Amino acid sequence: MNTPNPTLLGFDVIIVGTILAGVAAFAVLMAIYAAVTVKDPMAKRVKSLNDRRDELKAGIVTSNAKKRASLVRKSDQTDKMKETLGKMKVLQQSQIEVIQQKLAHAGYRNKELAVFVIGARLVLPIALGLFGVLVIYVLNYFPEWGGVKRVGAMGALLFAGYKGPEIFLKNKANKRTDEIRKGLPDALDLLVICAEAGLTVDAAFNRVAKELGRAYPELGDEFALTAIELSFLNERKKAFDNLAYRVDLEAVRGVVTTMIQTERYGTPLASALRVLSAEFRNERMMRAEEKAARLPAIMTVPLILFILPVLFIVILGPAACSIADAFAAKPGR
């Protein structure tokens, strides 16, 4: 007779174990495949930038009809939206420039997206407001809510619609800036090595972009774009100014100022970059020490709310139980 397989909670243990083993084996194979076929995130970006540089050097305009048609179509859509927003008196040039810089900080190169961001900031509150009226008041999806909750929910929806695009750009820009800040000291060390080896500034930036592209793709992207702009722009200062414009980081602006002054006055580049690298590393260490010094103050509230009550229960609990038992047994004597 065949012995039935053991079961746990009504499930066959052997079958479940076989399925889990198969899933684990598949996960291991996928992990090995992902590790073997890892691709450089900078390769495609750098290739497109190099192709564009070659086209600009040769004075060639892209002859791809489909790509040109898509660009014209996007430009037409942007012009129509600009015209509509201009008629509504909600579009100002200063506003467009502010949004364009926020887009650059977040890593978006297309400046025409600023018009769409301003349009979304106008349309989203209306759309979310209508959605809130439909759900909260018309369909009465939350009948237990009072008047205050309903008004608060409508206000939250309108605020999310108006501030949502800016909050999204700000969060993305902050994450990108943090990643660039982490890799900047290492990039400056590599720039020092390249400068001492005799490479030109654009070649040094290109080399650093290739070396740091895997570890810090955001910083590698910026350095690669700066190297390409240094190759074909008439004024090299403009390429450094563009780098400071795209990255919202005081350290990058310091590097840009150093590079401009070095090219203008002929001061040694390697020594200046070495001093900057040491300053940035000290700044990073001071920032870490600041976070460590703030830790006791941050831990005060969790300590009071979660740790001390449990500690009091553990220490005073047995004594309280003994006293309660003694008072309970006293009348019976």
Description of the molecule:
This protein has 333 residues and is mostly helical. Helices cover 81% and strands 1% of the residues. The chain is built from 11 helices and 2 strands. The chain has helices at 13-36, 43-58, 65-87, 93-106, 113-138, 147-196, 201-212, 217-232, 236-246, 250-265, 269-329, and strands spanning 7-8, 11-12. It has a two-stranded antiparallel ribbon. Helix 8 runs antiparallel to helix 9. It is extended, with a radius of gyration of 31 Å. It starts with 6 loop residues before the first strand and ends with a helix.
Summarize the topology.
Layout: E1 7-8, E2 11-12, H1 13-36, H2 43-58, H3 65-87, H4 93-106, H5 113-138, H6 147-196, H7 201-212, H8 217-232, H9 236-246, H10 250-265, H11 269-329
Antiparallel strand pairs: 1-2
Helix pairs in contact: 2-8, 3-5, 4-5, 4-6, 5-6, 6-7, 6-11, 7-8, 8-9, 9-10, 10-11
Average pLDDT for all residues: 79
Main beta-sheet annotation:
2 strands, antiparallel
Number of distinct helices? 11
Order of helices and strands: EEHHHHHHHHHHH
Write a concise keyword list for the protein shown above:
333 residues, mainly alpha, two-stranded antiparallel ribbon, 11 helices
Summarize the structure.
With 333 residues, the chain is mainly alpha-helical. Helices cover 81% and strands 1% of the residues.
